[in-house]
Each structure stands twice: as C-alpha cells, then as structure tokens.
Amino acid sequence: MKRMNPSVKKSSGIENQFNRFAFGVATLPKSMAATSDDIVNLLRHRRIIASSQIVDSLRMHSDPAKLLDMGAKIDFHKGFLTQEIFSQLNELYLNNSQDSNLSSTPKLTTSEPANDLGRVIAPITAPEPLDIEFRNNLPDWDVNDYSCHAVDAPTDITVHYDITGKSTTEGKMNDITACFSDRLNKIREMIVKNSKLPRRPTEVARLLREVHRYQGYENKAVAIGLVNEPRYTKNGHLMWSLEDETGEMNCLLTKRQGDDRDRFQEQIIEAGLMPDDVIGVSGTFSQNGDIFYVDDLHFPMKERHQKASSPFGVSVAFLSDIHVGSKTFLEAQWHKMVRWFHSDPLAKTIKYLILSGDCVDGVGIYPGQDKELAIPDLFGQYSEFARLLELLPDWVECIMLPGNHDAVRPAEPQPTFEKDIQQDYNTTTFVGNPCDFSLHGVRLLSYHGKSIDDFVAGLKTVTYADPVEAMRQMLRRRHLAPQWGGKTPLSPEPEDGLVINEVPDIFVTGHVHGHACLDFKGTTLVCSSTWQDQTSYQRMLGFQPKPCMLTIVNLQSHATTAIPFV
Ligand SMILES: [Fe+2]
C-alpha cells in the first residue's frame, strides 16, 4: 500500500544541497555567484532568518558572508534580518571595503585627498512585498482573551492517535472485514450511549426471523448497522439496506406530509445518507416483512460537548494547503504574515501552528501539473517550505501533517513524512493524517479533509462553498471518511483509524481552500485557509478560494479570531 514516488527521490536536490552545506558559502570564491540554497544554508548556519528578497540581495552580493560579519559592529548576531539591518550591514561593508582599499593602496593617498577616494555606492535595496494596511489593527480581539505569551508556557503536545509506524494492513479481504467490524462495534457503542434508543438494539438476522413481532405501532424494533446503497425512490423517499455482522435488511424513510412531518427526518431526507455510515434505526416491518419502515434514525453524536481549557492562555494558529512549489503560491502574502508574526502583540501568544496538509504542491498529482509548478522538484518544494517556516519567530512550534498532495501514501489514515523530508525542518513536529492530539489538555483533531469531496458528492446539503457542513456531518457520524470506494482512498486497518473516538475540543480540516471558524455543539470547527491563489482548475469550476487567513484560537479562553493577509 506504500506508494511513495521513488522516481522523484532520484531527482532530489537533497544530496547536492548537503554538499553545499558542508563546504559553506563563506568558502566560495568571490567570483562565483551563490545560489539561493547557499544563502539559505549560510543564514541557517548563523541562525539568521530573512525574507526571500533579502536572500536574493545576498545572492547578488559579492561577499555575503563578509557582509553578515559586519553584524558584530551593530550587535546583530542572529534573529530576523530586516531590510533596515541589511542596509546598515551593507553600508558598513562598503565603508569597510573603502578602508581596506585605502590601507592597501597608500600611493594614492599621497596624490589625492582621502575624502575623494572611492565612490559612494547606493545600498542594494530589494523590492519589498506591497504592504497593505492590516485590518487587524482594529481592536477586534481582547487582550484578556489572549493572556499568555508563548515564551512563558512550556511545550505540551500529547499525541493520542497517529497511524505512523502502526499500519498493519495487507489490504486483504479479512483486513477490510476487520476494519468495518471495528467501525461498527465502536460506533454502535456510541449510538447506544449517546442516542435515546427506545429499546436495546437487536441483531438484524434475529429481527428478520421475528418480523411478525415487530409489525404495527406498538412493538418497535431497533437495529444498528452499516448503510449500503442509499438511494431515493421516485416519490422522494429514502431507501437503503442496513447491514450488521448477521444480516441485511431493507429500510425505508418516508417523506411525510402535514402533522406527521418531523424536522430532523426532513433534514436526513434532504441531505441523504453516506454509503458505509453506521446508524441506528427504530421502526417496524411491513406485512410481508421485506421492508423496515424507519420511524427514527439514531446517530452517535452527543447533544453537547464540554470543552477542556488550558492552564496557559497561549494560542494555536491554523493553516493548510500552502502549496509551495505552485506558481499560484502567494509568497508576498507569506512574508507579510512573517512580518506580522514578528511585530503584532497577538502573534506573541501563538505557541503552536497547525499545518493540516498539502504544504507543498507535490509532483504528478494531476495531469499537466508540471506546467503549473514554479519548483518542479518535490524535495526542492519541501526545502523551500522549510525555509519559509524558519522565517517565523522561534516561539512558534509547528505541527505538520500530510495531505493528498504530499509525498506519503495516499490511503488514509496516512503516516507522516519520511526522514529525508523531515531533516530540513528544525522545530516541527511531524504527525500522520488524521491526528488526534492534545495541547495543554485541549483535545484537537486535525484531518486534511480529502473526504469532503465524498461528502459533497454524497450529501445534497454539503457544498464546496460551505465545507463546514461536511465537518458537522463527520462529527454527527463520528467518522471522518465513511465511504469505501469513493474519492478518498482508505487503508483497511484492523482498527478503523478514521473513527472519531473522542469528541474534539477543536476540529480542523483544510483541503477545500475555504475558510471558516465557528462553534458546533461545543466543538470549535476550523476550516483552515489556503496560501494558494485561485488555480486554473478552480477558475474553470467557478470556485473562489479564501486564501491567506490565519485562524487563531486561544487554548484557555477558546476565543477565536482570523487575521487576513490578502
Ligand atoms: Fe488537499
């Protein structure tokens, strides 16, 4: 099932990059122009972070290492190399060069006054990304809701579920059966616990043997099983068959009129059911016993969830679908965010940054993708993303999981990135997709969100314009990707890793390039924003993404805000 792309690995620039790192830029002859990677490595080596414009300026400089040495004169040894500091270093470098020239050419001093020597060269100033006023300058967040600086709290990450290193499936029939059996057992327990069943559930085979006991309004039967072939009749009623370990029965939920109407059932009929959902039904059999008339449906969701709170008032921020390597990656907006991180008081409270997959655009993900790539090499894309993350302040801990564009197996649950990708990143925790984890006791469920494609196709009420509805439906079903054989490839692990075992305090997805942050029955739902502009494919579909929004949730107050960088 492991489907890494070995051909891409061979073309990787990793080995080259490490050779360059070993020799170091400082040893390059001055006549040899440095590459961006050289400069990035030089900066990393000195623990300096800089925007891509500064990196470009250094690349064009005749002696970038010597220029950085000038930092000793203004007490700049490491940290964020701003344009202002760069200009100062450049000025010192030029003055220093003039002094050196003077001392090495004493003959000239005899014929001309020292002050007239040399030329005054203007410092190189790289164009900065256009600065648009931050809307968050408005007082749209209360300092009391974001009470603790990230540096004042210890790091506290506890992972509860991550498939990495634990995948045991061979993809055989008995694995698939074990996976569905585990799903059914777990969600059945949740339905019994959380839903108001009129009586204990009975096995389907037993109900079919005793249909005569469950006819008429008095004796309702209850069964819990997996949904097969949900479909509509020509009269708009909803039909499906319900299957458990013992058998299968045909179910019918009728569209009712007048006083018989029930809002919850209307919503189910309007939305439909997903294949392989686990649901409970209560109702009675038809006279000949071949149809089970459903009076009520029972889902495993709790009425209300009580959130946990962190003892530290630090915050967590959310991003997804950065798509570095694509021509439509919004780099200038990224640098704008980096400057915000280094200057805004709210940013000082952000201790964790959750990156919910598709941080790079990948290679060979869809036909013709190569024409839309600015960085055609997969490892080059990951290295560039590592460089972009290093521009963020030291106090931000990143937690990164894969998505469907990443270099891991596509079947979910997905294990995390291979070590040769991870080694470019300094302060990042790598986890699989999905990942159930806690930050200071606050439970988070992060899932890239590929199955939203199946929810859009399967449920009439879910659209790409409102992806949060898919998240509500996942929580309602306590399952992230119920449909087998749909658009989401699934790995049949003996323990179904896509069951939502614990209701999260914060549930985050990405994938669809939308943005939303709202409460649903006590859980904060975050649809993470993208950092990619509208693609040609999205333009063809008429889909307008909502890029460059940083969602922030405080782990103590659970206050939320979103900062736009568009
Ligand atoms: Fe995606």
Task: Produce a short descriptive summary.
This protein is an alpha/beta fold and 566 residues long.
Write the layout of secondary structure elements.
Elements: H1 6-10, H2 14-23, H3 36-45, E1 48-50, H4 52-60, H5 64-69, E2 79-81, H6 83-104, H7 106-111, E3 157-161, H8 173-194, H9 204-209, E4 221-232, E5 238-243, E6 248-253, H10 263-271, E7 278-285, E8 292-298, E9 315-319, H11 331-343, E10 350-356, H12 378-390, E11 397-401, H13 419-422, E12 428-430, E13 435-439, E14 442-446, H14 452-458, H15 468-477, E15 506-509, E16 516-520, E17 523-527, H16 536-541, E18 549-554, E19 560-564
Helix pairs in contact: 3-4
Bound molecules: fe (ii) ion.
Plain-language structure description:
There is one protein chain. The chain has helices at 6-10, 14-23, 36-45, 52-60, 64-69, 83-104, 106-111, 173-194, 204-209, 263-271, 331-343, 378-390, 419-422, 452-458, 468-477, 536-541; strands at 48-50, 79-81, 157-161, 221-232, 238-243, 248-253, 278-285, 292-298, 315-319, 350-356, 397-401, 428-430, 435-439, 442-446, 506-509, 516-520, 523-527, 549-554, 560-564. It is 28% helix and 19% strand. It has three domains: 13-100, no CATH class; 147-168 and 305-564, Purple Acid Phosphatase, chain A, domain 2 (4-Layer Sandwich), CATH 3.60.21.50; 196-298, OB fold (Dihydrolipoamide Acetyltransferase, E2P) (Beta Barrel). The chain is elongated. The strands form four sheets. The chain has a six-stranded mixed sheet with strand order 3-13-14-15-17-16, covered by helices on one side. The chain has a six-stranded mixed sheet with strand order 12-11-10-9-18-19, with no helix packed on it. Strands 4-5-6-8-7 form a five-stranded mixed barrel. The longest helix is centred in the N-terminal third of the chain and has 22 residues, at 83-104. A hairpin with a 6-residue loop joins strand 7 and strand 8 (292-298). With 566 residues, the chain is of the alpha/beta class. The chain is built from 16 helices and 19 strands. Helix 3 (36-45) packs across helix 4. Residues 321, 358, 403-405, 448, 511 line the site of fe (ii) ion.
